[in-house]
TrEMBL record:
Belongs to the TRAFAC class YlqF/YawG GTPase family. RsgA subfamily. GO terms for cellular component: cytoplasm. Its cofactor is Zn(2+). GO terms for biological process: ribosomal small subunit biogenesis. Monomer. Associates with 30S ribosomal subunit, binds 16S rRNA. HAMAP family: GTPase_RsgA. This is Small ribosomal subunit biogenesis GTPase RsgA. Residues 90-240 form the EngC GTPase domain. GTP binds at residues 130-133, 184-192. Binds 1 zinc ion per subunit. PROSITE patterns: ENGC_GTPASE, G_CP. Zn(2+) binds at residues 266, 271, 273, 279. Its EC number is 3.6.1.-.
Amino acid sequence: MLQKGLVIRSTGSWYDIRNEDGHVYQGRLKGKFKIKGLKVTNPIAVGDRVQFEVEDVTENTAVILDIDPRENYIIRQSVHKTAHGHILAANIDQAVMLATLTLPRTSLGFIDRFLVTAEAFRIPTTVVFNKTDILNDEGLGYQQEIMDMYESIGYSCLATSATEGDGVEAFRQLLDHKITLLSGHSGVGKSSLVNAVAPGLNLRTNEVSTFANKGVHTTTFAEMFELAPETFIIDTPGIKELGLVDMAKEEISHYFPEMRDRLNQCRFNNCLHVNEPGCAVKEAVGEGNIAESRYMSYLSMLDGGDNRR
Ligand SMILES: Nc1nc2c(ncn2[C@@H]2O[C@H](COP(=O)(O)OP(=O)(O)OP(=O)(O)O)[C@@H](O)[C@H]2O)c(=O)[nH]1
Ligand SMILES: [Zn+2]
């Protein structure tokens, strides 16, 4: 009997498939799968919705017969076959960029790079600022300015303290019934926040990004955790390096929403907004309608600069 399932873990050729009752089977693909127009090293990724058949009830194995069309996916160039892509995750409802202004400091450049990449993959993102409890009044004021800046562009923001419980309920509601990609530097409190909203899960602090820390060569492993019914967070190796995947220079400003809105006002339609005359983006920066920090991030990305740190 054909069943619908969600791929919650991928370990190479085996996939953990969760059916609609929450039962998890170990599944494999039957035969060779070709996905139209896409050269990939992995035909199935975490987040894929599949049709499968139970193969062996005692062994708990299953055979995957079909993959539903994807809403979106995160792909990066394969480490092994450069002409191919490697799909890190599919069907992501949203991303959370977890940042801290201090201990560790998350730079605005890092946040912007993530936001640009998420725009390119069409994944709506909320920026969450954790560890608000360790900020003094000046720090809180600065954090508010940054949140106002991102909200004016259209990104929702949230301030939390995983240890004090501030904003934790709002964070729980943000995740509710969604598949969320959780990203952020090591030590910003990803595990702590997840544990705060789902104590039963009891993630070891550190566990959320154990795989990610191993670096680019372990990209086959990705995993989804069910926090509450139909509520998942996805931990994907390589997300920290979520860089500008194959992005043409002309394309970058399209993923800055506040620039995108002004592109057709530049004098030249191939304007890169650096020092061209009649550039509407530069004008908006000058007038304070585009944040200086965002423009700096843009220039750095244009330059091929790496501001992941
Ligand atoms: N003061 C304060 N400390 C926090 C807060 N959230 C987390 N921490 C602490 O920060 C440290 C790192 O937290 P983790 O939850 O392990 O961070 P992580 O993002 O999961 O880190 P990795 O697993 O390395 O990616 C721990 O010592 C936490 O107790 C917070 O809101 N306030
Ligand atoms: Zn321009």
